[in-house]
Structure formats: C-alpha cells, structure tokens
C-alpha cells in the first residue's frame, strides 16, 4: 500500500477506530516510513492540542449547586425501579405476614385459653366425687335432662357396637354462657364433650375438625348448626376422632 | 431486560459526572456563558423527563450529548448558527493528510492554547462539534454517529475536514500573528523547524 493511501487512514488509526489487522499493518508501515511517521506525529500533536485547548470552560460554582439541587434524588432506573417494586412487595408481604402471624398467633392464643379452661373443667370434673349431675348411659335420659337448663338442644349418638359409653352429663359454663358437659368412657378413660353456642367461642369457627394437643390431652373441635363442640381426653387422637365422628353423625 | 437493568441506577448517579464536560461542550457551541448555562439546564431537564424512556445498557453519555446538541440546534443561537454557516457538501472521501512541517505542529510544542482555542472557535459549528466530541470528549465514531445522527462514513469524512480546516486556521493565525506582532513565536517556530 502506498503512503498516500496509508495517510488517509492515519486519523482513523490515531482515533483507535482502525480494524485490528489494518492497525498492525499501519504500525509496521510507520516504523519503516519516515514520512508517514512524521505525519502521524503531527496529527497526534494536533489531537493532543485540541484536547488540551478544548478544556476551556468550567461552570460557575453557583450554577453547579443549582443544577445538583435540581437533579438530586431524582428517578432511579433499572434495578432501581425494580428495587422499589420489590421493596414495596416485600413490605406488603412482611405486613401481610405479620398480620397473618398476629392473627394466627392471636387466634392460637384465644384457642389455647379456651382449651385451657375446658381442660381444667375436664380435670376438675373427673376429680369430683359427683362428676355428672345426670348419671346415665341412656342418651334419651341425658338429653332431656338439659331441657330448660341450657339455651339450645343437641343430639347424642347411638353407641351400640362401639367402644364408647355415655356416663352422664352436667351443665357447665364458658364465658358466662351455659353449655352441656357430657362424659363418655372408652376403655377406662373418660372423654369430656363440651357443647356451647358457637358465638361463645372467640374467633372464626369451622365445620372442619381441628385436632390439637393441649397439656398432653387430645382436643378436637368443630362447629355445626350454630353449636361448637369440643372433645377433650387423655386417650389417643384416634379415639377422640372416632367419638367425634359419632357425634357428628348424630347431629347431621 | 438486561442484567444491567437489575442494578440500581439513578439519574443523578449517571448525569452528575457528565456535568463539567457537558457544560464545556455547551459553552463551545454557544460561545456564551449564560446561554451555555441555559442549554445545560434545559438538557438536564429534558434528560430527567425522558429518563424513563432511556434504554439502560445503551450509551448514556452519547444520549446526553445528543439531547444537548438537539436542544442547542433548536435554540435561537443554534438556529442562527446553522442558518449562517452553510454546510459544505460532505463526501465519504477522506481528505488528504496534513502537510509536514506545519505551523500547528510547532504551535503544539509551544503550547499556544489561546491560538488553538481561537481557531476552534472559528470553526463552523458542524466541524467544531465533531472535533470536540472526538478529540476532547473521546467519543467513539459510533457514539459520534449516534450523537450527531449522521452515518459512520460521514463522521470520518467530516472529522477529517474539520482537522484540515483547523490546521489551515492555525496556519493562517500563525502567519497573521507573525505580522501582527507574534515575532517571538515565529522565532521559536523557525528555530524548531
């Protein structure tokens, strides 16, 4: 390539925009061509001169301050916007989680208080010399006994062909509201069945059974037809659940 | 959406570092401090408003220069400048190189910035801006092409013409300066040559 052709490439070469292969070729040419080397030197010097002379104007401090104030804390892009979305989502999740946790915790606390109170009643009743006011294994005797004593009525299951036997019942109170307390027996173990109006028990009540363990007692609860049922005993969860199914069958 | 978009980027973070160089460029375009301030102020205001549409991962600096330049071109001074400075027909053919032993080469060695600055100021707008964007701001040809909205070939040819025009202006200034009392400079350049 003749010098004139090379020289048309010098600016591009010095601006660092010449393709790599041509850059190598031009490098080699400049090392061997005094004319092109001198030309390149002049161009480099002019470029540097423009660079130095070009840095001429500086903004006033006052203007700088004003402009910085204008743009300070202005919008954030990319992750920034995503960060805000994420941050808001995280806060919402946290607050919702907190509310749910509080609600669950609150409900759990209320439930535990109720379970605790009923467990006390269960234990106290069994410790009593006369645990029931109507000692009878006949549901047709026990159920009518409650008439006029409690503000609701209920059905009791037929227990033939089951391990359970009815021992009797008594009136009890929860939250100053009267309810039925029935005692069932299964293999020398007593199970208390409490029946109260649904509104006596705090929180939302579900038809679905909840089986929990409270002070080593198994506790199963459910709601049906405006009544809240609670079974407590030291028997297995299976026994509790079997009795629950019998009671549900009687009331459905 | 690129990964870069998952990095927190504020307008302030991107725009503040460009302030000095944008102001300098604005002053070169307007040749007036007050107008330069207005131009920079308006550039930042426009950029701020349009920041949501800015494609992260693309060249923010070129984007800012483009806004500044377009704002200038639509300003009173800009319109006047572009109307009074006729654009020469531009070809993609590159200009022939600068001659050896040029006065500008000697001036550079004497660091006569004032003369160079005056020569830059006298350049037509389209040469002045492309020369400053390339040599001062060190924008790549691609960035210049994007900023000035001209093809890459035009960037190269216009840049070449701008440099040759600047060299001619410097030469004339040096010769005129010699007549007008720049005797010392001439003595020095004679010595250097």
Report on this model:
The complex is a heterodimer of chains A (252) and B (193). Chain A is of the alpha+beta class and 252 residues long. Chain A is built from seven helices and eight strands; from the N terminus they run ααααβαβαββββββα. A seven-stranded antiparallel beta sheet of chain A has the order 2-3-4-5-8-7-6, with helices on both faces. The longest helix of chain A is centred in the middle third of the chain and has 49 residues, at 79-127. The mean pLDDT of chain A is 83. By secondary structure, chain B is mostly helical. Chain B has eleven helices and one strand. Chain B has helices at 11-15, 19-30, 33-50, 60-74, 76-84, 103-110, 113-122, 125-136, 141-148, 152-179, 183-192, and one strand at residues 8-10. Chains A and B meet through helix 1, helix 3, helix 4, strand 1 and helix 5 of A and strand 1, helix 1, helix 2, helix 3 and helix 6 of B.
Overall shape of chain A: rod-shaped
Shape call of chain B: globular
Radius of gyration of chain A equals: 44 Å
User: Helix content range of the residues of chain B, please?
Assistant: 55-70%
Strand order of the biggest β-sheet of chain A = 2-3-4-5-8-7-6
First and last CA, distance of chain B: 58 Å
Structural class of chain B: mainly alpha
Number of strands of chain B: 1
Tell me roughly what share of residues is in helical segments of chain A: 40-55%
Largest sheet of chain A: 7 strands, antiparallel
Q: Tell me the number of strands of chain A.
A: 8
Outline the low-pLDDT stretches of chain B. 1-7, 91-101, 178-193
Residue share in β-strands of chain B: under 5%
Order of helices and strands of chain A: HHHHEHEHEEEEEEH
Count of helical segments of chain B? 11
Average pLDDT of chain B: 76
Q: Which percent band covers the strand fraction of chain A?
A: 15-25%
Oligomer: heterodimer
Largest chain-chain contact?
A: A-B, 48 and 59 residues
Going by helix content, strand content and strand pairing, the class of chain A is alpha+beta
Mean pLDDT of chain A: 83
């Amino acid at each position: 390539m003749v010098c004139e052709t090379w020289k048309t490439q010098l600016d591009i070469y010095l601006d660092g925009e010449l393709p790599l292969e041509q850059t190598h070729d031009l490098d080699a040419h400049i090392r061997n061509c005094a004319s092109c080397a001198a030309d390149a030197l002049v161009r480099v010097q002019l470029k540097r001169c423009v660079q130095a002379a070009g840095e001429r104007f500086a903004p006033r401090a006052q203007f700088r301050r004003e402009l910085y104030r204008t743009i300070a804390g202005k919008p954030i892009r990319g992750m920034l916007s995503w960060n805000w979305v994420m941050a808001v989502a995280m806060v919402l999740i946290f607050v919702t989680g907190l509310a749910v946790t509080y609600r669950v915790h609150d409900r759990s606390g209320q439930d535990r208080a109720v379970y605790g109170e009923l467990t006390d009643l269960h234990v106290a009743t069994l410790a009593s010399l006369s645990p029931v006011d109507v000692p009878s294994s006949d549901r047709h005797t026990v159920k009518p006994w409650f008439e006029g004593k409690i503000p609701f009525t209920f059905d009791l299951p037929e227990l033939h062909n089951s391990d359970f036997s009815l021992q009797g019942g008594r009136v009890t109170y929860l939250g100053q509201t009267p309810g039925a307390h029935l005692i069932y027996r299964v293999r020398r173990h007593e199970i208390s069945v409490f029946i109260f109006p649904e509104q006596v028990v705090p929180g939302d009540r579900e038809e679905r059974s909840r089986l929990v363990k409270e002070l080593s007692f198994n506790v199963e609860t459910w709601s049906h037809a405006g009544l809240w049922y609670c079974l407590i005993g030291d028997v297995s969860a299976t026994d509790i659940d079997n009795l629950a199914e019998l009671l549900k069958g009687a009331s459905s | 959406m690129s990964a870069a978009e998952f990095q927190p980027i504020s307008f302030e973070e991107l725009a503040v570092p460009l302030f000095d160089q944008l102001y300098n460029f604005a002053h070169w375009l307007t040749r007036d401090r007050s107008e330069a301030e207005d131009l920079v102020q308006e550039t930042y205001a426009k950029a701020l408003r349009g920041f949501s549409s800015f494609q992260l991962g693309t060249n923010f600096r070129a984007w800012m220069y483009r806004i500044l330049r377009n704002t200038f071109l639509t300003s009173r001074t800009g319109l006047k400048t572009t109307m009074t400075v006729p654009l020469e027909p531009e070809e993609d053919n590159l200009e022939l190189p600068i001659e050896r032993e040029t006065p500008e080469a000697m001036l550079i060695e004497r660091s006569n910035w004032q003369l160079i600055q005056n020569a830059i100021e006298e350049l037509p707008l389209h040469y002045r801006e492309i020369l400053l964007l390339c040599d001062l701001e060190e924008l790549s040809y691609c960035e210049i092409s994007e900023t000035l909205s001209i093809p890459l070939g035009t960037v190269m040819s216009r840049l070449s013409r701008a440099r040759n025009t600047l060299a001619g202006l410097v030469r004339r200034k040096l010769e005129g300066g010699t007549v007008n009392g720049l005797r010392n400079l001439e003595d020095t350049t004679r010595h250097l040559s």
